[in-house]
Design brief:
8 strands; four-stranded mixed β-sheet; globular; about 140 residues; 2 domains; about 15% helix; alpha/beta
């Protein structure tokens, strides 16, 4: 078996970063936290998630991340599947975040992109079908 366990994001301030992620994932919790060093620099770390998936945050970030509208090598975005895109979008809007609706694929999926306070782009996708062949129909959209 192989599955994604966590994503590790370097941020400037973990408490500030959690504003976005707590609004997006109200059912998640802080799984653990502590202090350590990374390449000789002190840092605070925190794992936020559920029993299967979490985001690891470290607060030793010094610079801004890549410009998503540019062409630098690096992470473009992370995508999460939801069955409540409208409610999730509303929670993030109340928390002060404005999403940009994606192209999706009419009748197959809807998606919205948000940018967190550190500049990471997070996509939320809602599928209209449980059928894998329908979900993986790329004839009407681009990624």
């Amino acid at each position: 078996m192989l599955y994604l366990e966590h994503v590790n994001l370097v941020v400037k301030d973990i408490s500030r970063a959690l504003i976005f992620y707590k609004a997006a994932f109200p059912h998640w919790r802080i799984r653990g936290e502590g202090k350590s060093t990374w390449s000789g620099k002190p840092r605070r770390w925190l794992h936020f998630g559920d029993d299967q998936l979490y985001i690891a945050f470290s607060d030793h970030g010094e610079q801004n991340i890549r410009d998503n509208s540019g062409f630098q090598v690096g992470l473009s975005h992370i995508a999460f599947v939801t069955d409540e895109l409208a409610q999730l979008t509303q929670r993030l809007k109340i928390a002060g975040f404005i999403g940009e609706e994606g192209d999706g694929s009419s009748g197959v999926r809807s998606n919205t992109y948000f940018v967190d306070l550190d500049g990471y782009e997070i996509e939320f996708v809602e599928y209209t079908s449980e059928e894998i062949s329908v979900r993986n129909d790329y004839t009407q959209t681009t990624c």
